[in-house]
Amino acid sequence: MRTRDKILKEALKQFNGLGVEKTTTRHIASALGMSQGNLHYHFANKDLLIKELFDNFIQKITEVRKYEYQVLFKKEDVLASMDLSFSVMYKYRFLFRDNETVWRRLSSIKKAMLELLAGRKVEIKQIISHYVKQNIFRPDISDSQQEYLADQFVFNITSWLNASEYLGVTKQKSNYFAKFTFRQWLPYLVSEEMKNWEELLGEK
Amino acid sequence: MRTRDKILKEALKQFNGLGVEKTTTRHIASALGMSQGNLHYHFANKDLLIKELFDNFIQKITEVRKYEYQVLFKKEDVLASMDLSFSVMYKYRFLFRDNETVWRRLSSIKKAMLELLAGRKVEIKQIISHYVKQNIFRPDISDSQQEYLADQFVFNITSWLNASEYLGVTKQKSNYFAKFTFRQWLPYLVSEEMKNWEELLGEK
DNA sequence: GTCTATACAGCGATAGAC
DNA sequence: GTCTATCGCTGTATAGAC
What we know:
The structure is a homodimer. Chain A has eleven helices and no strands. Chain A is mainly α. Chain A folds into two domains: 1-44, Homeodomain-like (Arc Repressor Mutant, subunit A, Orthogonal Bundle); 53-201, Tetracycline Repressor, domain 2 (Orthogonal Bundle), CATH 1.10.357.10. The first copy, chain A, binds a DNA duplex through residues 3, 24-26, 34-38, 40-42, 44-46.
């Protein structure tokens, strides 16, 4: 593995574990048995490390999305898609946990992240709208409630990482939260569908 | 105002605004036109500042809870109660935004915070159970789904502060999120109730 | 590319004068 | 109580030898 990549890998590990502010170039370098001077040869400053990790994140999350674009309406596929997205987000969780720190340092990341989420919201509204047309969702759910559901979805995907401690979640994080998020739709379903979905999501 | 209190007030302001790690005793002192030495006369170290602010938070949030304990089942009261809680949490938002940093420094706060939330979950389950018995909630909602709803509630109250940027919320934060959280219950209601509640929550 | 050495700034905290 | 002065440490980043 190239030195550059080793540094990136270790930086990601420490950003996720210790947080962005507590992670230092000294610390990263020494964990790799490398001098700090050498690290700064490869990455002139800490922000460049963050920037490159963010670019990697965007690349992976875009890949995941593209992959399932056409199969998105079947409930098993929606669930699997969420699971995949969540696992990528989990890998780069410092971007969400320390979002304020990161955004303060690099405002371009803030912009890109908000755009990403706006795109997600549009997608989710399409799915919901599809379910309403197919009579999978109940007919008495108002438009504003559908809008709300999409907001709740965005809220969930951005917040789940911080919440795991509060909820006492330890293992299988991405899978747990994919179900957690998906489960929010249960009461919107018509009765016949509800049983199927509840089965898919398994007992809590 | 006593010097002690001035320091606490400024510390809270900076913790909320800059984050705990970026806030320094130097910074707090100079904002008050006071020497750093003097600040350290009143608070020997930074952790004592955090600790005292946390104690104030606990005192206020407990007060708020006690106050409406008996009226908790009417929907208007539940909403008002949430609004009050959220506004206290907002005042001490660094405790939630920087929860990992704070918990790393003072594990006693982690313990107390998790207990507080566990209590909240119990309360919310009581309310839900009450609504089910009163036939305000639909009868076809499973027990595990009720449990889930309580978890979602805890998830919401702990995460809303970080999410406002993602959702584009700017003003009236506590009121907005009280409704946001409450609105999650809409699809669980029987049809007749749904209209009343939707009116209470207003158009999005 | 990788190292050592070092400059420089900022932090928490303490000592001692007033 | 409040101040100034200072210590010891840790952080980012650069310079120059190999």
